[in-house]
Design a protein that fits this description.
Elements lengths: L2 H13 L2 E2 H8 L3 H13 L3 E6 L7 E6 L1 H4 L6 H16 L1 H23 L4 H14 L4 E6 L2 E6 L5 H4 L7 H11 L2 E6 L8 E6 L6
Antiparallel strand pairs: 1-3, 2-3, 4-5, 5-7, 6-7
Length: 207
């Protein structure tokens, strides 16, 4: 990202909101120059502008970060999840952790099933992949001679799975429940593969 726009995002992160003049003063730039950068950031949906009315004079326009911009800053959710699983295992053992993951997979599947159900298996796969793409994931599917295949090129759980590999079962379990079919993990990024691959067959309908 262009350095001035990055600096604008950092100021808005610290301050919460700012006007064009306030940003110009902190950056040592003209208001016109700042507006040009803000225009690009608005176009990219990283900042949003709102009007603040005053008792006297013209209203102020203040800028603040959007959720998309907030997501650009580092997060450590994987550490929290890893610590929680560490603590659960230490207190209640591995079986309790696996039971927790099974429950999470069911909840995940329940949130998707209503959007995917009532279709043929191939239509379900296509619809599910479409939903995952809308969530921002790099995922594809194809129909082969031996069945249907889903390929994921990013892993939402990768950093947690490096410490707790059983987390990978979440994805397989979710796919099995949503698709109502047999799902087999064929490739895994955790094993150094370039993607996670799943083979799907209608031969077995899970209970």
């Amino acid at each position: 990202m262009q350095i001035t726009r990055k600096e604008i995002l950092e100021i808005l992160r610290r301050e919460g909101q700012a006007t064009v003049d306030q940003l110009a003063q902190q950056l040592g730039l003209t208001s016109t120059c700042v507006r040009q950068h803000l225009s690009v950031l608005e176009r990219d949906q990283l900042v949003a502008c709102r009007e603040v009315r005053r008792k006297l004079g013209r209203p102020n326009f203040v800028y603040a970060l959007t959720q998309s911009a907030d997501d650009l800053f580092p997060k450590s959710y994987h550490l929290l999840t890893t610590w929680l699983l560490d603590e659960l295992k230490a207190r209640d053992g591995d079986e309790k952790a696996l039971s927790l993951l099974e429950g999470m997979a069911r909840r995940w599947a329940d949130s998707l099933s209503s959007q995917v159900g009532g279709r043929t298996l191939e239509e379900k796969v296509e619809r599910l992949v479409g939903i995952l793409k809308q969530e921002g994931h790099l995922v594809e599917w194809e129909k082969g001679e031996s069945g249907l295949f889903i390929y994921e090129y990013d892993c939402r759980f990768h950093r947690v799975a490096e410490v707790h590999p059983e987390v990978c079962s979440l994805e397989t379990s979710m796919l099995t429940q949503v698709l109502g079919a047999s799902v087999e993990s064929l490739e895994c990024m955790l094993d150094g593969q370039a993607r996670c691959a799943y083979g799907i067959s209608a031969g077995h309908q899970p209970g």
